[in-house]
Amino acid sequence: QVQLVESGGGLVQPGGSLRLSCAASGFRFEDYWMTWVRQAPGKELEWLSSLSGLGRQTLPPDSIGSRFTISRDNNKKTVYLRIDNLTSEDTAVYYCAKGLGRTAVPRGQGTQVTVFA
User: Fold this and answer.
1) Which residue, 6, 15, 18, 100, is the most exposed by fewest CB within 10 angstroms?
2) pLDDT tens-digit profile of 46-75?
3) What phi and psi, each to the nearest 5 degrees, are found at residue 113?
4) Residue 114: is its pLDDT beyond 90?
5) Given this model, what pLDDT does residue 17 score?
6) What is the reported pLDDT for 68?
């Protein structure tokens, strides 16, 4: 049974950084792309970044060098998302998902990030 458990969210001031974690179990982690998406209040699900199984490819291309950095540790079966220079627009629930892209499923339960001044 696939399980994805996100952590690392919380309250942060504008300009700060966070690293979110997602611990995976129930499948051969290194064989799968992993994805981070988020959903802000009243908005649609937004695809942030996906990383290939061995960490060699990141999509979408414009996520590279952005404020969002995805990484993974296959030994720990964990995928990470670092968010830099947070703004109020980043307030959302962040989910990791097994697979590639916005429609990747299943997703975890999510972790709340709230940016406040």
Assistant:
1) 15
2) 999 999 999 999 999 877 778 999 999 999
3) -115, 125
4) yes
5) 95
6) 95
Amino acid symbol at 92 = A
- Separation of alpha carbons 97 and 50, rounded Å: 9
30: which 2 tokens?
Answer: 């290194």
Which residues is 94 bridged to in the sheet?
38, 111
CA pair distance 14, 111, nearest whole angstrom = 18
What is the number of residues in the chain? 117
Can you read off the two tokens belonging to residue 89?
């627009």
Q: For tokens 């001031």, name the residue.
A: 13
Task: Give the helix ranges, DSSP H, for 44-110.
Answer: none
Structure tokens at 29: 């982690």
Confidence tier at 112 by pLDDT (50, 70, 90): very high
What is d(CA 22, CA 34) in angstroms, rounded to the nearest whole number?
10
What is the rounded distance in angstroms from the CA atom of residue 23 to the CA atom of residue 69? Answer: 17
